[in-house]
């Protein structure tokens, strides 16, 4: 009597799923952070709000949230202030004040199957 044992690896599938979830998580954080920043942005013409965007860098496992320099070249001065104008931060607080929500977003994506 012979016994045959067959072992299959699902490692490639698992890795692909983790990469997919990482990308979904970074995109969701970018969207959430961008919306929060837009809500918090000072409004004069609306260009500052329209300039907020995000870019996912999957190989580096990061998402950048910032302003399009062509639409709102003055964004850093609004965020950080100048010697003549007080800061009106909108980018940093959008993320700093929502760390729990960002964590919940990530957890829901990874636990969501």
Overview of this protein structure:
The protein is mainly alpha-helical and 113 residues long. It has five helices and two strands, in the order ααββααα. It is elongated, with a radius of gyration of 21 Å. The mean pLDDT is 94.
Please give a handful of descriptors for the protein shown:
11% strand; 113 residues; 53% helix; mainly alpha
Strand content: 5-15%
Total number of β-strand segments? 2
User: Overall 3D geometry?
Assistant: elongated
* Count of runs of 4 or more consecutive helical residues: 5
Order of helices and strands: HHEEHHH
Radius of gyration: 21 Å
Q: For the residues shown, what is the average pLDDT?
A: 94
Going by helix content, strand content and strand pairing, the class is mainly alpha
Residues in helix, %: 40-55%
Lateral arrangement of strands in the main beta sheet? 1-2
What low-confidence regions span 5 or more consecutive residues with pLDDT below 50?
Answer: none
